[in-house]
Protein: non-specific serine/threonine protein kinase
Amino acid sequence: MPEFDGGDSSSEGILFGKYELGKLLGRGAFAKVYHGRNVHTGQSVAIKAVNKLKVLNGGFTAHVKREIDIMRRLRHPNVVRLFEVLATKTKIYFVMEFAKGGELFTKVSKGRFSENLSRRYFQQLITAVGYCHSRGIFHRDLKPENLLLDENFDLRVSDFGLGALTDQIRPDGLLHTLCGTPAYVAPEILAKKGYDGAKIDVWSCGIILYVLTAGFLPFNDSNLMAMYRKIYRGDFRCPKWTSPDLRRFLSRLLDTNPETRITVDEIHQDPWFRKGFHEEKIQFEDYSVSELYGDMNNAKCLNAFDLISFSLCFDSTGLINETEFSSDVERFLSAESPEKIIMTVAEVSKSENAAVEKNGWGAKVEGHDGGFIAVIEIFRLTEELVVVEIKNRVREIDQIWKEKLRPQLDCLIFQSE
Structure:
């Protein structure tokens, strides 16, 4: 049975009263991935459990934030979909689409694919990669282990843990973080002079296509530096069974010069790639953030960065642990509508002769003598929950808030069943 930390479940073995965790599918440096089931719908999901302590101690907080921010932007039939993010005091849970067919790596490790089957998967891969690039996202770790198959054996790109966004590009127009899996890394990354995220993804796609059709890596050596030299020189040979069109295509994908390497747009025009492509009829949904979190009615929504900030001290009983925040700030979760919360604040303040100035999903409370001020803001966390943030601006007389006003708002606090 999977391990649960305190407060993870509202009933034994059920995560947040919604997901039943099953067998362990895989593990990484600070995360484990489980098979899960939505107990209400029966839908299978993959649940990535991230250990917050390891994330914090390892300095990976920004890394996790970025992965969430990337995944929430993507909705495409060939990209693993993120359904929601949940959090407790010790863990962050990514609830994602479950790819029943497993890793593409497992399939190809049993033997090379036919050229036609390789082309089909490559077409799906390039369609997904092109979509990500159009959203300003670069994967940077494309390899068969990160390509999953659904129940229909269609491809799903996964694991954006090393992904980059356009806002990481430096003034020289390039990315500079050294990352990726050695056998799939582009030569310009080895040069350590900066690189174009789109071009290194194309290189990795070329390696993947070679592996699918050959059954082995184009650049491989037991000595890592020797392998890097081969990559840098573009020293590879196609197997004798490779068709002339595919040889030519691979040479363009694995061009060591990023300036002349084929682009995603050019890939779509290549004769080898286009064969049968129109039959795929690949389409994708566009989406907005509001679709991911539900209809917010123009609500003030928390983005992925806010979500992680709150989740670092989230308590599933409904209250926010304040040890990491200033004593002048209080936060709690509520399942009530923002309108009802503001209305309740106004009624409570009026009973204590305090004035309330409403401002959308916020309010300012001021004492009758003008001496006490509290600012209240409401943020959408999920479709069902909001975070109420209260900032006490005058600490010397905050007893007015603590003893008279605040206790009357307890009825708004969300309590998990």
